[in-house]
Amino acid sequence: xxxxxxxxxxxxxxxxxxxxxxxxxxxxxxxxxxxxxxxxxxxxxxxxxxxxxxxxxxxxxxxxxxxxxxxxxxxxxxxxxxxxxxxxxxxxxxxxxxxxxxxxxxxxxxxxxxxxxxxxxxxxxxxxxxxxxxxxxxxxxxxxxxxxxxxxxxxxxxxxxxxxxxxxxxxxxxxxxxxxxxxxxxxxxxxxxxxxxxxxxxxxxxxxxxxxxxxxxxxxxxxxxxxxxxxxxxxxxxxxxxxxxxxxxxxxxxxxxxxxxxxxxxxxxxxxxxxxxxxxxxxxxx
Length: 286
Prior knowledge:
Pfam families: His_Phos_2 (PF00328). One of its GO terms (molecular function) is phosphatase activity. Belongs to the histidine acid phosphatase family. InterPro entries: His_Pase_clade-2 (IPR000560), His_PPase_superfam (IPR029033), Histidine_acid_phosphatase (IPR050645). Keywords: Hydrolase. The chain is α/β, with parallel strands linked by helices. It has a single domain, classed as 3-Layer(aba) Sandwich (Rossmann fold). It is built from seven helices and five strands. The strands form two sheets. A three-stranded parallel beta sheet has the order 1-5-4. The chain has a two-stranded antiparallel ribbon with strand order 2-3. The longest helix is centred in the C-terminal third of the chain and has 23 residues. About 8% of the residues have low confidence.
């Protein structure tokens, strides 16, 4: 069974024809967007040497006698102190593991929409046929959201504060709750040892549920001064309006027989997917 199992869905009526597909996927495994919890007792690595595949590529160069030759290029990331090591990842970069899982998603999409259903040709002859984007349309709340939900995290302080320099675990803390979860999940996905407290299902569930009600740092998102209204109909329309407007526009273009891509693939953050599920009334708070 692949990632996209047809058995999980009801069969479409035989008189319907597939015209367009919108795919929203969670981005692949990556490094944390910042260095957190690298000191004892957590000891999560500050720098991750897990990006070897992404740093090697072929380049055409002009050799002797003006003959074009192929050379292997290795790209390095240099730290502030001048140190550089092959394969070291940038903050938030897809690791080799993430690139492999992302490739698998693409392979599954090809099997279903090219080989099985024939929606797309074997080889794309135009970029207008398919649309790919790394999208981040995350929900953002004002300080009222943190004020309302931080008390739910106080019970975790005695277990987790020691891993973040004695600071309390808070939605808007230092580091932020979303940042802690980002680091823990990324480390665990790549086989690094994480503190046992972060493997407790009850602890993780509390953190995940509250992160869904918050956003990444303001520099990475659009801010909506809407307060704690994640379940309010008007709020949801505003928060996800831009994303759903793009979806609706694509469908309308197909109906009107104007030029439109056959498939739209958007890689999203957790907050985007949670907001979309909430708007469509299929969010299960996980």
